[in-house]
């Protein structure tokens, strides 16, 4: 009986499978180690005095750009691999400013407010706050997202039907403008979704709200998108967190969540994700509130973008400051040029 050698495609498939196993064995621990150090909550605090020194450093860099003749646009010196973007980041030809602001400045429990620098990541912030029994109104779920990115970019979550987008919950911003200043009230309504095109964000103040120990979740299966929208509109005011997943035109799963420290049925606690779940089937409802957000990519013209988005506060700041226009590209141009 003749014995044939395995085909090249079979050998390649076996090799690919072995490589996949090797990658899974090594990548898993590497990711764990990276997350441990990247999301560590140690040394995540600064003082008002140290923060002021760091802001002065940003101002000094902006003033050097001014003294150098305002040549070219400015941008942060953050490396491209740190950008949460689907596009390649190209900063060649830009005046790069080091903005090393990644810490918590103050957690004021008495007045229930948080003052934090823009580079603080959500994974770090959430752990620190929940350990103290607090959270913030809008908590995006990806740990590596930063406070500044969620404000200058787009950030919302399952509590946004109450609080709006992430930036809507912020009570004050500190920003270094193209003139090197840090105070200008007109900028307050222009910062959100500006993509860093009106100044360098240096700190924000966000209210604190009490955090329960658990999240009680009710799952409701709905058999159509219209019924899901109807149910969410009926129930969104009654729940702190509302979310839906559309699997098909006739399969929608809604989730209604509320924080609690006293679960009604301790036997149903999921200790992995620390949630208590209840379930309803064949519900007849769901909630929907739409938010416009400039995220990931743009397929509009400049005119179409300004018709769709409320850019009046942003345009007011840009039009009133020639320094701002010289220092930063317009938000549309920045999104289209993939400059971060």
UniProtKB/TrEMBL annotation:
SUPFAM superfamilies referenced in this protein's UniProt entry, alphabetically: FAD-binding/transporter-associated domain-like
One GO CC term, this protein: peroxisome
EC number of the protein: 1.3.1.72
Domain spans labelled FAD-binding PCMH-type: 40-211
Gene3D superfamilies reported in the protein's UniProt record: 3.30.465.10
Top-level taxon of origin: Eukaryota
UniProt catalytic activity: 5alpha-cholest-8-en-3beta-ol + NADP(+) = zymosterol + NADPH + H(+); lanosterol + NADPH + H(+) = 24,25-dihydrolanosterol + NADP(+)
Alphabetical keyword list: Membrane, Oxidoreductase, Peroxisome, Transmembrane, Transmembrane helix
UniProt-recorded Gene Ontology molecular function terms: Delta24(24-1) sterol reductase activity; Delta24-sterol reductase activity; FAD binding
The protein's name: Delta(24)-sterol reductase
């Amino acid at each position: 009986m003749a014995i044939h050698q395995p085909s090249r495609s079979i050998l390649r498939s076996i090799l690919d499978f072995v490589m996949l196993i090797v990658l899974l064995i090594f990548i898993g621990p590497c990711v764990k180690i990276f997350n441990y150090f990247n999301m560590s909550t140690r040394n995540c605090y600064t003082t008002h005095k140290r923060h002021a020194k760091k802001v002065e450093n940003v101002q000094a860099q902006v003033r050097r750009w001014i003294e150098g003749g305002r040549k070219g646009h400015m941008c942060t010196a953050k490396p491209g691999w740190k950008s949460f973007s689907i596009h390649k980041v190209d900063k060649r030809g830009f005046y790069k400013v080091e903005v090393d602001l990644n810490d918590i400045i103050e957690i004021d429990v008495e007045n229930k407010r948080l003052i934090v620098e823009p580079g603080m990541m959500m994974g770090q912030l959430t752990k620190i706050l929940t350990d103290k029994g607090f959270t913030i109104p809008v908590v995006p779920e990806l740990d590596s997202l930063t406070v500044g990115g969620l404000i200058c970019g787009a950030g919302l979550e399952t509590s946004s039907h109450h609080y709006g987008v992430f930036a809507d919950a912020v009570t004050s911003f500190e920003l270094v403008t193209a003139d090197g200043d840090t105070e200008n009230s007109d900028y307050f309504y222009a910062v959100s979704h500006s993509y860093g095109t009106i100044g360098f964000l240096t700190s924000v103040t966000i209210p604190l709200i009490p955090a329960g120990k658990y999240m009680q979740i009710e799952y409701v299966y709905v058999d159509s998108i219209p019924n899901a929208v109807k149910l969410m509109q009926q129930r969104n005011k009654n729940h702190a967190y509302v979310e839906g997943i559309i699997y098909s035109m006739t399969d929608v799963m809604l989730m209604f969540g509320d924080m609690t420290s006293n679960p009604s049925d301790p036997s149903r606690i999921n200790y992995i994700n620390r949630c208590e779940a209840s379930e309803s089937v064949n519900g007849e409802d769901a909630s929907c509130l739409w938010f416009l957000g400039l995220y990931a990519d743009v397929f509009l013209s400049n005119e179409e973008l300004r018709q769709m988005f409320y850019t009046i506060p942003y345009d007011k700041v840009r039009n009133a400051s020639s320094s701002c226009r010289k220092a930063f590209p317009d938000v549309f141009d920045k999104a289209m040029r993939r400059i971060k």
